[in-house]
Design a protein that fits this description.
Largest sheet: 5 strands, parallel
Structural class: alpha/beta
CATH class of the largest domain: Alpha Beta
CATH topology of the largest domain: Methyltransferase, Cobalt-precorrin-4 Transmethylase, Domain 2
Bound molecules: S-adenosylmethionine
Number of helices: 15
Strand order of the largest sheet: 6-5-7-4-8
CATH architecture of the largest domain: 2-Layer Sandwich
Number of strands: 13
Strand content: 15-25%
Distance between the termini: 88 Å
Number of domains: 4
Order of helices and strands: EEHEHHEHEHEHEHEHEHEHEEHEHHHH
Length: 370
């Protein structure tokens, strides 16, 4: 394998220019940004790649570096400008955020296919995965990787492609980039640098799950993945206790049962829809109370990808002031008809409304005419 070398010019955060050479641009920029690069760039991060030139050998890269280092700042700026001119008359590249299928390869828009064909470069979370999609549609655009482990360094390289007038499409493995997937950092970088960022809409698992859940779709909150650390997870769930809007979470098959149980423990046995393997052969939406759905997946081991869509707390359950005794007893009856033990139901209604257990118990007795 032949090793490529590059001479490059960086702009430091204080505007000063630094010239160097390397055989791995991505790693080198990351190094400068972690303060472990050249002494000159330490404390001057983040750096921005302004120019790079491929050289056939290390010696040539070193010679070119020495040549550029001798130049004045103005002359270096001319090199940068000249490079941009060569690649498109100072045209600025556009960053497209292309949604791709979440399972079914047919779920991609005509516009996304056209853009993936037309751009100079596709930045993909996993190039092997995206290559399958591209070869299905006979698209041969060059691919490069952009994932959570190279976001920092690679972001700069993608910005330099945009600077060179090239259009770049960002895709993730599935769905919309930036939604529980890499994208946010690059979008911020591109916006800060004045590039146009264009969304190319398409699938996002959360939207398909919400609309098929049977739970209110007028207002919902997307929480993404709950934190893995129990303490942090419980903190997030605690904050959700009085949320009236429908709640949406992403979850893995390994943790789905545990998460559903934890939600039930902290938020009560509410209605839920668990959407599994959307748009794929084994697509299913399991609806019911949390306890029903837990039972379902304890009997049929959970496989695939999951979205949890959870009922929000009802406004009148949240505010004890609006509860008449009859309201409290109706809530208890509602839980009992959903399979709750009466004593547990009274406890739960007391918890949800912030009313004393005795008051709820009295309301039930009154409703029963006792
Ligand atoms: N960017 C994606 C989107 O727009 O939905 C989300 C990527 S995130 C890394 C992956 C998670 O999304 C999965 O763990 C699952 O929770 C959810 N997901 C993705 N595809 C899905 C599908 N076909 N069915 C159900 N959930 C899915």
């Amino acid at each position: 394998m032949t090793v490529k070398f590059y001479t490059y010019i960086l702009k430091c955060s204080d505007g000063r220019l630094y010239t160097g050479y390397t055989n791995d641009l991505e790693k080198r920029i990351a190094k400068h940004n972690t303060g472990k690069g050249a002494k000159f760039t330490r404390g001057r991060g983040p750096v921005e790649l302004m120019f790079s030139e491929e050289c056939p050998s290390k010696e040539q890269a070193m010679t070119r570096e020495a040549e550029i280092k001798k130049l004045t700042r103005q002359e270096k700026l001319e090199i940068i400008k000249g490079d941009q001119k060569m690649t498109g008359d100072n045209k600025k590249g556009i960053l497209y955020l292309c949604a791709t299928p979440i399972g079914n390869l047919e779920d991609i828009t005509l516009r996304a296919l056209r853009i993936l064909k037309e751009v100079s470069l596709i930045a993909a979370e996993d190039t092997r995965h995206t290559r399958k999609l591209l070869s299905y549609y006979d698209i041969h655009t060059p691919l490069t990787s952009y994932h959570e482990h190279n976001e920092k360094g690679k972001g700069q390289i993608l910005i330099s492609e945009l600077n060179a007038g090239k259009d770049v499409a960002l895709v993730s493995d599935a769905g919309t980039p930036g939604i529980s997937d890499p994208g946010y950092e690059l979008v911020c970088l591109a916006i800060n640098e004045g590039f146009t960022v264009v969304p190319v809409p398409g699938p996002a698992a959360l939207v398909s799950a919400v609309v098929s859940s049977g739970l209110p779709t007028d207002r919902f909150v997307f929480e993404g993945f709950l934190p893995r650390v129990k303490k942090e997870r419980n903190k997030v769930l605690e904050q959700m206790k009085s949320e009236e809007r429908t709640l949406v979470f992403y979850e893995s098959p390994r943790r789905i049962i545990k998460t559903l149980k934890e939600i039930q423990k902290l938020l009560g046995d509410r209605k839920v829809a668990v959407a599994r393997e959307l748009t794929k052969i084994h697509e299913e939406v399991v609806r019911g109370l949390l306890s029903d759905v837990v039972r379902h997946f304890e009997e049929k081991s959970p496989k695939g990808e999951f979205v949890i869509v959870l009922e929000g707390i009802k406004g009148d359950e949240k505010n004890p002031q609006v509860h008449e005794a009859s309201g409290l007893s109706l809530m208890v009856i509602d839980l009992v008809t959903r399979g709750w033990d009466k004593k547990e139901a009274i406890k739960e209604v007391a918890r949800r409304t912030g009313t004393g257990r005795n008051a709820v118990y009295t309301a039930v007795l009154e409703a029963e005419g006792k």
